[in-house]
Amino acid sequence: MSTDSHMSCCRLKAVRLAAAALVAAVLCASAEPAFSAPRDSGGEPASNAEEADTGPIESVVVTATGYTAGVESTGKRPGDRGYGITYSGVRVRRGVVSTIAADPEVFPIGTLLYIPGYGYGVVADTGKAIKGNRIDLYFETPGQVYREWGKRTVRVDVLVRGNGKLSEKRLAELGRAVTAGQWLPVEKRKT
């Protein structure tokens, strides 16, 4: 690898890590205690609480496939009850932070991942075939699934571990945080 190519690769990783910390910040700033540092009675960080590291909690190798809201993936058609609605109750979406499906035993609902080549995904859905270290990434059309993704083995970064819940409000907060470039420390990495 040339020096220029290596430097470019390092810069890309640094930018990706900074962006991951930024997105995770929204989840840390929420009122949900699962994502915030211990506080004393005055609301200040507890004196024994160490500063949180930035970056992913862990990286996990997964098999990633794509899915749509349509009959080919879900068995539902537009107009059917539950069409386009995930297990968590939020609408499927492909955007700054997209909805993805995962095994809740591996990645609980609400877990925020960074998926190389796809972007940020929050676990909002499950699937019969999505078990173990397997994730399903939302796309709007079957053509996009095949053209843009297919089936890949990738190393994903776990930014924040979910608590089993996800709301439209949380998704909107994540999107705004990524767009605005907000940053806060994230949870401690596994050691």
Please explain how this structure is put together.
- By secondary structure, the chain is α/β, with parallel strands linked by helices.
- The protein has one domain: Barwin-like endoglucanases (Beta Barrel).
- The chain has 4 helices and 6 strands; from the N terminus they run H-E-H-E-E-E-E-H-E-H.
- It has a 6-stranded mixed β-barrel with strand order 1-5-2-4-3-6.
- Helix 1 (3-29) packs across helix 4 (168-180).
- The protein is globular and about 40 Å long.
- The two termini are 30 Å apart.
- The model is unreliable at 6-12, 21-53 and 183-191 (pLDDT under 50).
Q: Uncertain runs with pLDDT below 50, 5 residues or more?
A: 6-12, 21-53, 183-191
CATH fold description: Barwin-like endoglucanases
State the fourth-level CATH superfamily: RlpA-like domain
Which CATH class applies here? Mainly Beta
Compressed to H and E, one letter per element, the order equals HEHEEEEHEH
Strand tally, please? 6
> Can you tell me the number of structural domains?
1
- End-to-end distance, in Å? 30 Å
Please estimate the helix content.
25-40%
CATH architecture: Beta Barrel
CA-atom Rg in angstroms: 17 Å
- Mean of residue pLDDT? 74
In spatial order, strands of the major sheet run 1-5-2-4-3-6
SS field, number of helical segments: 4
Describe the largest sheet: 6 strands, mixed, barrel
* Class inferred from helices and paired strands: alpha/beta
Proportion in β-strands: 15-25%
